[in-house]
Specification:
Mean pLDDT of chain A: 96
Number of strands of chain A: 2
Strand order of the largest sheet of chain B: 2-1-3
CATH superfamily of one domain in chain B: Phenylacetic acid degradation B
Shape of chain A: globular
Helix content of chain B: 10-25%
Radius of gyration of chain A: 22 Å
Strand order of the largest sheet of chain A: 1-2
CATH class of one domain in chain B: Alpha Beta
Distance between the termini of chain A: 48 Å
Strand content of chain B: 15-25%
Number of helices of chain B: 2
Shape of chain B: elongated
CATH topology of one domain in chain B: Ubiquitin-like (UB roll)
Number of helices of chain A: 12
Order of helices and strands of chain A: HHHHHHHHHHEEHH
Oligomer: heterodimer
Distance between the termini of chain B: 69 Å
Low-confidence stretches of chain A: none
Largest sheet of chain B: 3 strands, antiparallel
Number of strands of chain B: 3
Largest sheet of chain A: 2 strands, antiparallel
Radius of gyration of chain B: 21 Å
Structural class of chain B: alpha+beta
Helix content of chain A: 55-70%
Bound molecules: fe (ii) ion
Strand content of chain A: under 5%
Structural class of chain A: mainly alpha
Largest interface: A-B, 33 and 22 residues
Chain lengths: 316, 95
Protein backbone atom coordinates (compact mmCIF):
# COMPACT_ATOMS: atom_id res chain seq x y z
CA UNK A 1 0.00 0.00 0.00
CA UNK A 2 1.20 3.48 -0.94
CA UNK A 3 0.15 4.79 2.46
CA UNK A 4 2.89 2.91 4.31
CA UNK A 5 5.80 3.89 2.06
CA UNK A 6 8.65 6.14 3.12
CA UNK A 7 9.22 9.47 1.36
CA UNK A 8 12.18 8.02 -0.46
CA UNK A 9 10.16 5.07 -1.75
CA UNK A 10 7.35 7.41 -2.78
CA UNK A 11 9.81 9.59 -4.65
CA UNK A 12 11.26 6.58 -6.45
CA UNK A 13 7.80 5.40 -7.46
CA UNK A 14 6.96 8.91 -8.60
CA UNK A 15 10.08 9.14 -10.78
CA UNK A 16 9.34 5.68 -12.21
CA UNK A 17 5.89 6.89 -13.28
CA UNK A 18 7.45 9.96 -14.89
CA UNK A 19 10.01 7.82 -16.71
CA UNK A 20 7.21 5.65 -18.07
CA UNK A 21 5.36 8.78 -19.26
CA UNK A 22 2.44 8.16 -16.91
CA UNK A 23 0.76 11.50 -16.20
CA UNK A 24 0.52 12.86 -12.69
CA UNK A 25 -3.00 13.90 -11.66
CA UNK A 26 -4.07 16.31 -8.89
CA UNK A 27 -4.71 13.81 -6.09
CA UNK A 28 -1.67 11.63 -6.84
CA UNK A 29 1.27 11.74 -4.47
CA UNK A 30 3.97 14.14 -5.68
CA UNK A 31 7.16 15.58 -4.17
CA UNK A 32 6.66 18.97 -2.60
CA UNK A 33 9.27 20.54 -4.89
CA UNK A 34 7.44 19.23 -7.95
CA UNK A 35 4.23 20.82 -6.69
CA UNK A 36 5.93 24.13 -5.88
CA UNK A 37 7.78 24.24 -9.20
CA UNK A 38 4.54 23.69 -11.07
CA UNK A 39 2.59 26.23 -9.03
CA UNK A 40 5.29 28.80 -9.74
CA UNK A 41 5.51 28.00 -13.45
CA UNK A 42 1.76 27.68 -14.09
CA UNK A 43 0.83 30.84 -12.18
CA UNK A 44 3.59 32.83 -13.92
CA UNK A 45 2.30 31.47 -17.20
CA UNK A 46 -1.24 32.54 -16.26
CA UNK A 47 -0.03 36.03 -15.29
CA UNK A 48 1.75 36.31 -18.64
CA UNK A 49 -1.47 35.55 -20.52
CA UNK A 50 -3.39 38.15 -18.51
CA UNK A 51 -0.75 40.90 -18.55
CA UNK A 52 -0.19 40.02 -22.21
CA UNK A 53 -3.68 41.36 -22.99
CA UNK A 54 -2.57 44.90 -22.15
CA UNK A 55 -0.09 45.76 -24.94
CA UNK A 56 -2.58 44.57 -27.56
CA UNK A 57 -5.64 45.90 -25.77
CA UNK A 58 -3.98 49.27 -26.27
CA UNK A 59 -4.76 49.12 -30.01
CA UNK A 60 -8.26 47.61 -30.14
CA UNK A 61 -10.02 50.96 -30.45
CA UNK A 62 -7.52 52.12 -33.08
CA UNK A 63 -7.44 49.08 -35.33
CA UNK A 64 -7.34 50.28 -38.96
CA UNK A 65 -10.58 48.56 -40.01
CA UNK A 66 -13.43 46.47 -38.71
CA UNK A 67 -11.90 43.14 -39.77
CA UNK A 68 -8.64 43.87 -37.97
CA UNK A 69 -10.59 45.04 -34.94
CA UNK A 70 -12.72 41.88 -34.75
CA UNK A 71 -9.62 39.71 -35.11
CA UNK A 72 -7.67 41.59 -32.44
CA UNK A 73 -10.63 41.45 -30.05
CA UNK A 74 -10.92 37.69 -30.56
CA UNK A 75 -7.20 37.26 -30.03
CA UNK A 76 -7.14 39.25 -26.81
CA UNK A 77 -10.22 37.39 -25.58
CA UNK A 78 -8.38 34.11 -26.22
CA UNK A 79 -5.51 35.30 -24.03
CA UNK A 80 -8.00 35.92 -21.21
CA UNK A 81 -9.20 32.36 -21.72
CA UNK A 82 -5.62 31.05 -21.58
CA UNK A 83 -5.11 32.85 -18.28
CA UNK A 84 -8.27 31.25 -16.89
CA UNK A 85 -7.34 27.70 -17.98
CA UNK A 86 -4.00 28.18 -16.27
CA UNK A 87 -5.28 29.65 -13.01
CA UNK A 88 -7.62 26.63 -12.83
CA UNK A 89 -4.70 24.27 -13.43
CA UNK A 90 -2.72 25.99 -10.64
CA UNK A 91 -5.72 25.58 -8.32
CA UNK A 92 -5.66 21.80 -8.84
CA UNK A 93 -2.28 21.85 -7.06
CA UNK A 94 -3.75 23.59 -4.04
CA UNK A 95 -2.73 27.12 -5.01
CA UNK A 96 -5.14 29.84 -3.90
CA UNK A 97 -6.17 31.73 -7.04
CA UNK A 98 -6.56 35.12 -5.39
CA UNK A 99 -3.27 34.74 -3.54
CA UNK A 100 -1.40 33.99 -6.75
CA UNK A 101 -2.98 37.06 -8.35
CA UNK A 102 -2.04 39.18 -5.33
CA UNK A 103 1.54 37.90 -5.70
CA UNK A 104 1.55 39.34 -9.21
CA UNK A 105 0.31 42.66 -7.89
CA UNK A 106 2.87 42.83 -5.08
CA UNK A 107 5.70 42.06 -7.50
CA UNK A 108 6.48 38.73 -5.83
CA UNK A 109 5.42 36.74 -8.90
CA UNK A 110 6.87 37.35 -12.34
CA UNK A 111 5.40 37.21 -15.82
CA UNK A 112 6.99 37.14 -19.26
CA UNK A 113 9.17 40.24 -19.57
CA UNK A 114 8.15 40.76 -23.21
CA UNK A 115 4.93 42.42 -22.04
CA UNK A 116 6.89 45.22 -20.40
CA UNK A 117 7.64 46.73 -23.80
CA UNK A 118 5.29 49.41 -25.15
CA UNK A 119 3.19 49.06 -28.32
CA UNK A 120 3.94 52.27 -30.17
CA UNK A 121 2.40 51.67 -33.60
CA UNK A 122 -0.17 49.45 -35.29
CA UNK A 123 2.69 47.39 -36.73
CA UNK A 124 3.44 46.24 -33.19
CA UNK A 125 0.21 44.19 -33.35
CA UNK A 126 1.80 42.39 -36.28
CA UNK A 127 5.16 41.94 -34.59
CA UNK A 128 3.56 40.64 -31.39
CA UNK A 129 1.33 38.09 -33.11
CA UNK A 130 4.09 36.90 -35.39
CA UNK A 131 7.05 36.91 -33.00
CA UNK A 132 5.68 36.87 -29.45
CA UNK A 133 2.92 34.35 -30.08
CA UNK A 134 5.34 32.51 -32.36
CA UNK A 135 7.86 32.20 -29.54
CA UNK A 136 5.07 31.29 -27.11
CA UNK A 137 4.02 28.45 -29.43
CA UNK A 138 7.61 27.11 -29.47
CA UNK A 139 7.53 27.08 -25.67
CA UNK A 140 4.03 25.71 -25.32
CA UNK A 141 3.93 22.87 -27.84
CA UNK A 142 6.32 20.68 -25.77
CA UNK A 143 4.30 21.57 -22.64
CA UNK A 144 1.36 19.65 -24.15
CA UNK A 145 3.37 16.55 -23.14
CA UNK A 146 4.20 17.88 -19.66
CA UNK A 147 4.02 15.25 -16.91
CA UNK A 148 1.30 17.09 -14.98
CA UNK A 149 -2.08 16.22 -16.51
CA UNK A 150 -4.08 19.42 -15.93
CA UNK A 151 -1.21 21.62 -17.22
CA UNK A 152 -0.73 19.42 -20.30
CA UNK A 153 -4.46 19.47 -21.06
CA UNK A 154 -4.62 23.26 -20.67
CA UNK A 155 -1.68 23.55 -23.09
CA UNK A 156 -3.44 21.42 -25.70
CA UNK A 157 -6.34 23.89 -25.69
CA UNK A 158 -3.98 26.87 -25.72
CA UNK A 159 -1.88 25.58 -28.61
CA UNK A 160 -4.97 24.92 -30.73
CA UNK A 161 -5.89 28.58 -30.32
CA UNK A 162 -2.40 30.06 -30.68
CA UNK A 163 -1.85 29.26 -34.33
CA UNK A 164 -4.46 31.80 -35.44
CA UNK A 165 -2.72 34.37 -33.21
CA UNK A 166 0.55 33.96 -35.03
CA UNK A 167 -1.05 33.94 -38.47
CA UNK A 168 -3.04 37.13 -37.91
CA UNK A 169 0.15 38.86 -36.75
CA UNK A 170 2.14 37.66 -39.73
CA UNK A 171 -0.66 38.79 -42.02
CA UNK A 172 -0.51 42.31 -40.56
CA UNK A 173 3.28 42.41 -41.06
CA UNK A 174 3.10 41.01 -44.60
CA UNK A 175 0.47 43.59 -45.60
CA UNK A 176 2.43 46.49 -44.16
CA UNK A 177 5.64 45.24 -45.76
CA UNK A 178 3.91 45.29 -49.16
CA UNK A 179 2.35 48.71 -48.52
CA UNK A 180 3.64 52.26 -48.89
CA UNK A 181 7.27 53.05 -47.97
CA UNK A 182 5.99 54.49 -44.68
CA UNK A 183 4.04 51.31 -43.91
CA UNK A 184 7.03 49.13 -44.72
CA UNK A 185 9.23 51.31 -42.50
CA UNK A 186 6.69 50.94 -39.70
CA UNK A 187 6.77 47.14 -40.03
CA UNK A 188 10.58 47.12 -40.05
CA UNK A 189 10.65 49.37 -36.97
CA UNK A 190 8.33 47.00 -35.10
CA UNK A 191 10.52 44.04 -36.04
CA UNK A 192 13.60 45.98 -34.88
CA UNK A 193 12.08 46.64 -31.47
CA UNK A 194 10.53 43.20 -30.86
CA UNK A 195 13.15 40.83 -32.32
CA UNK A 196 15.57 40.77 -29.40
CA UNK A 197 12.95 40.81 -26.63
CA UNK A 198 11.27 37.89 -28.45
CA UNK A 199 14.55 35.91 -28.30
CA UNK A 200 14.77 36.72 -24.59
CA UNK A 201 11.36 35.08 -24.06
CA UNK A 202 13.08 31.68 -24.01
CA UNK A 203 14.90 32.65 -20.83
CA UNK A 204 18.59 32.70 -19.89
CA UNK A 205 21.20 30.57 -21.65
CA UNK A 206 21.23 26.93 -20.55
CA UNK A 207 24.40 27.45 -18.49
CA UNK A 208 22.58 30.14 -16.45
CA UNK A 209 19.23 28.42 -16.15
CA UNK A 210 19.05 26.94 -12.66
CA UNK A 211 15.69 25.12 -12.90
CA UNK A 212 16.16 23.44 -16.27
CA UNK A 213 17.85 20.21 -15.20
CA UNK A 214 15.35 19.23 -12.52
CA UNK A 215 12.40 20.32 -14.68
CA UNK A 216 13.62 18.09 -17.47
CA UNK A 217 14.04 15.14 -15.14
CA UNK A 218 10.42 15.65 -14.04
CA UNK A 219 9.35 16.07 -17.68
CA UNK A 220 7.82 19.44 -16.98
CA UNK A 221 10.24 20.78 -19.55
CA UNK A 222 11.20 18.80 -22.65
CA UNK A 223 13.74 21.09 -24.30
CA UNK A 224 16.29 23.57 -22.99
CA UNK A 225 15.96 27.32 -23.44
CA UNK A 226 18.72 27.45 -26.04
CA UNK A 227 17.27 24.58 -28.07
CA UNK A 228 13.90 26.31 -28.29
CA UNK A 229 15.48 29.68 -29.08
CA UNK A 230 17.48 28.13 -31.92
CA UNK A 231 14.36 26.47 -33.30
CA UNK A 232 12.57 29.83 -33.24
CA UNK A 233 15.38 31.63 -35.08
CA UNK A 234 15.59 28.85 -37.67
CA UNK A 235 11.91 29.04 -38.59
CA UNK A 236 11.45 32.81 -38.28
CA UNK A 237 14.39 34.16 -40.31
CA UNK A 238 13.11 32.74 -43.64
CA UNK A 239 9.64 34.14 -42.86
CA UNK A 240 11.12 37.64 -42.50
CA UNK A 241 13.02 37.25 -45.77
CA UNK A 242 9.86 36.13 -47.52
CA UNK A 243 8.07 39.39 -46.70
CA UNK A 244 11.12 41.54 -47.38
CA UNK A 245 11.96 42.55 -43.81
CA UNK A 246 15.45 42.47 -42.27
CA UNK A 247 16.26 40.79 -38.95
CA UNK A 248 18.13 43.42 -36.89
CA UNK A 249 21.21 41.29 -36.24
CA UNK A 250 24.45 41.95 -38.14
CA UNK A 251 25.92 38.63 -36.90
CA UNK A 252 23.08 36.55 -38.26
CA UNK A 253 24.21 33.97 -40.80
CA UNK A 254 23.22 30.53 -41.98
CA UNK A 255 25.67 27.76 -41.17
CA UNK A 256 25.56 25.27 -44.04
CA UNK A 257 27.26 22.59 -41.96
CA UNK A 258 24.90 22.60 -38.98
CA UNK A 259 21.82 23.65 -40.93
CA UNK A 260 21.14 26.30 -38.31
CA UNK A 261 21.32 30.08 -38.17
CA UNK A 262 24.04 31.59 -36.02
CA UNK A 263 22.94 34.75 -34.30
CA UNK A 264 24.41 37.58 -32.24
CA UNK A 265 24.80 37.89 -28.49
CA UNK A 266 21.62 38.73 -26.57
CA UNK A 267 21.79 41.76 -24.30
CA UNK A 268 21.32 39.91 -21.00
CA UNK A 269 21.77 43.09 -18.96
CA UNK A 270 18.63 44.40 -20.59
CA UNK A 271 16.85 41.10 -19.92
CA UNK A 272 17.66 41.03 -16.20
CA UNK A 273 16.90 44.71 -15.87
CA UNK A 274 13.38 44.17 -17.23
CA UNK A 275 12.90 41.01 -15.11
CA UNK A 276 13.84 43.02 -12.03
CA UNK A 277 11.05 45.49 -12.78
CA UNK A 278 12.87 48.28 -14.59
CA UNK A 279 11.52 47.75 -18.11
CA UNK A 280 9.68 50.56 -19.88
CA UNK A 281 6.19 49.44 -18.77
CA UNK A 282 6.59 47.19 -15.68
CA UNK A 283 5.02 49.65 -13.25
CA UNK A 284 2.21 50.52 -15.60
CA UNK A 285 1.30 46.87 -16.31
CA UNK A 286 1.15 45.80 -12.66
CA UNK A 287 -0.66 48.98 -11.66
CA UNK A 288 -3.30 48.40 -14.35
CA UNK A 289 -3.90 44.83 -13.14
CA UNK A 290 -4.03 45.90 -9.50
CA UNK A 291 -6.59 48.60 -10.26
CA UNK A 292 -8.67 46.16 -12.29
CA UNK A 293 -8.92 43.87 -9.29
CA UNK A 294 -9.66 46.67 -6.83
CA UNK A 295 -12.18 48.44 -9.02
CA UNK A 296 -13.97 45.19 -9.78
CA UNK A 297 -14.24 44.08 -6.15
CA UNK A 298 -17.71 45.59 -5.62
CA UNK A 299 -19.03 43.76 -8.69
CA UNK A 300 -17.77 40.41 -7.43
CA UNK A 301 -19.22 41.07 -3.98
CA UNK A 302 -22.57 42.15 -5.39
CA UNK A 303 -22.77 39.01 -7.57
CA UNK A 304 -22.11 36.82 -4.56
CA UNK A 305 -24.62 38.69 -2.39
CA UNK A 306 -27.25 38.34 -5.14
CA UNK A 307 -26.66 34.62 -5.46
CA UNK A 308 -26.84 34.15 -1.67
CA UNK A 309 -30.07 36.11 -1.52
CA UNK A 310 -31.66 33.97 -4.22
CA UNK A 311 -30.41 30.83 -2.53
CA UNK A 312 -32.05 31.89 0.75
CA UNK A 313 -35.32 32.71 -0.99
CA UNK A 314 -35.36 29.27 -2.61
CA UNK A 315 -34.74 27.42 0.63
CA UNK A 316 -37.23 29.59 2.60
CA UNK B 1 -14.03 44.10 1.71
CA UNK B 2 -15.15 40.52 2.21
CA UNK B 3 -12.49 37.86 1.69
CA UNK B 4 -15.12 35.43 0.39
CA UNK B 5 -14.36 34.23 -3.14
CA UNK B 6 -16.65 32.92 -5.84
CA UNK B 7 -16.94 29.13 -5.63
CA UNK B 8 -15.17 26.77 -8.04
CA UNK B 9 -17.22 24.88 -10.66
CA UNK B 10 -16.31 21.89 -12.79
CA UNK B 11 -17.39 22.20 -16.41
CA UNK B 12 -18.65 19.36 -18.63
CA UNK B 13 -19.35 19.85 -22.33
CA UNK B 14 -21.30 17.80 -24.85
CA UNK B 15 -19.43 18.47 -28.08
CA UNK B 16 -22.22 17.20 -30.38
CA UNK B 17 -25.50 15.32 -30.25
CA UNK B 18 -24.95 11.66 -29.53
CA UNK B 19 -21.82 12.11 -27.41
CA UNK B 20 -21.65 12.25 -23.63
CA UNK B 21 -20.67 15.30 -21.62
CA UNK B 22 -16.95 15.39 -20.95
CA UNK B 23 -15.00 17.21 -18.26
CA UNK B 24 -13.09 20.13 -19.78
CA UNK B 25 -11.86 22.11 -16.79
CA UNK B 26 -13.05 24.42 -14.08
CA UNK B 27 -13.82 28.06 -13.43
CA UNK B 28 -15.03 30.46 -10.75
CA UNK B 29 -18.52 31.95 -10.72
CA UNK B 30 -20.92 33.44 -8.15
CA UNK B 31 -23.73 31.01 -9.02
CA UNK B 32 -24.73 28.24 -11.42
CA UNK B 33 -26.15 30.55 -14.08
CA UNK B 34 -23.02 32.65 -14.15
CA UNK B 35 -20.96 29.46 -14.28
CA UNK B 36 -22.84 28.42 -17.44
CA UNK B 37 -22.31 31.85 -19.00
CA UNK B 38 -18.62 31.88 -18.11
CA UNK B 39 -18.18 28.30 -19.34
CA UNK B 40 -19.68 29.39 -22.67
CA UNK B 41 -17.03 32.13 -22.94
CA UNK B 42 -14.08 30.18 -21.55
CA UNK B 43 -14.60 26.73 -23.05
CA UNK B 44 -16.73 27.06 -26.21
CA UNK B 45 -15.34 30.03 -28.16
CA UNK B 46 -14.90 27.83 -31.24
CA UNK B 47 -18.15 25.86 -31.22
CA UNK B 48 -16.69 23.12 -29.02
CA UNK B 49 -20.09 22.37 -27.51
CA UNK B 50 -23.86 22.24 -27.79
CA UNK B 51 -24.61 21.63 -24.11
CA UNK B 52 -22.92 22.56 -20.81
CA UNK B 53 -23.12 21.06 -17.32
CA UNK B 54 -21.63 22.84 -14.33
CA UNK B 55 -21.19 21.20 -10.93
CA UNK B 56 -19.84 22.83 -7.77
CA UNK B 57 -16.37 21.31 -7.33
CA UNK B 58 -17.07 20.84 -3.63
CA UNK B 59 -19.93 18.46 -4.53
CA UNK B 60 -17.66 15.96 -6.26
CA UNK B 61 -16.54 12.87 -4.39
CA UNK B 62 -13.46 11.27 -5.91
CA UNK B 63 -11.87 7.90 -5.27
CA UNK B 64 -8.55 8.06 -3.47
CA UNK B 65 -5.63 7.32 -5.83
CA UNK B 66 -3.87 5.41 -3.03
CA UNK B 67 -6.85 3.01 -3.04
CA UNK B 68 -6.55 2.43 -6.76
CA UNK B 69 -4.91 -0.99 -6.38
CA UNK B 70 -7.57 -2.31 -4.05
CA UNK B 71 -10.37 -0.78 -6.10
CA UNK B 72 -9.36 -1.87 -9.55
CA UNK B 73 -7.24 -4.97 -9.01
CA UNK B 74 -10.26 -7.36 -8.95
CA UNK B 75 -11.09 -6.42 -12.55
CA UNK B 76 -7.50 -6.96 -13.71
CA UNK B 77 -7.55 -10.66 -12.79
CA UNK B 78 -10.82 -11.44 -14.57
CA UNK B 79 -9.51 -11.67 -18.07
CA UNK B 80 -12.31 -14.11 -18.97
CA UNK B 81 -14.59 -11.07 -19.16
CA UNK B 82 -12.94 -10.17 -22.46
CA UNK B 83 -13.75 -11.95 -25.74
CA UNK B 84 -10.03 -12.32 -26.50
CA UNK B 85 -9.83 -14.87 -23.63
CA UNK B 86 -11.63 -17.49 -25.73
CA UNK B 87 -10.30 -19.66 -28.54
CA UNK B 88 -12.47 -19.63 -31.61
CA UNK B 89 -11.63 -22.38 -34.10
CA UNK B 90 -10.61 -21.37 -37.60
CA UNK B 91 -13.53 -21.27 -39.97
CA UNK B 92 -16.04 -20.01 -37.39
CA UNK B 93 -17.42 -16.61 -38.33
CA UNK B 94 -20.05 -14.17 -37.03
CA UNK B 95 -18.85 -14.65 -33.44
FE1 LIG C 1 -1.91 32.80 -25.03
FE1 LIG D 1 -1.61 34.07 -28.10
Amino acid sequence: MVKDLSIQELEERFQEKINKDIKIEPNDWMPDDYRQTLIRQISQHAHSEIVGMLPEGNWITRAPNLRRKAVLLAKVQDEAGHGLYLYSAAETLGADREETIDDLHSGKAKYSSIFNYPTLTWADMGAIGWLVDGAAIMNQVPLCRCSYGPYARAMVRVCKEESFHQRQGFEIMAHLAQGSPEQKAMAQDALNRFWWPALMMFGPNDAESKHTLQSMKWKIKRHTNDELRQQFVDVTVPQAEMIGLTIPDKDLKFNEKTGHYEFGEINWDEFWNVVKGNGPCNKDRVETRRKAKENGAWVREAALAYSEKRQNRKSA
Amino acid sequence: MSKKEWPLWEVFIRSKAGLNHKHVGSLRAADAEMAIDNARDVYTRRSEGISIWVVPSAQITASDPTDADALFEPANTKIYRHPTFYDVPDGISHM
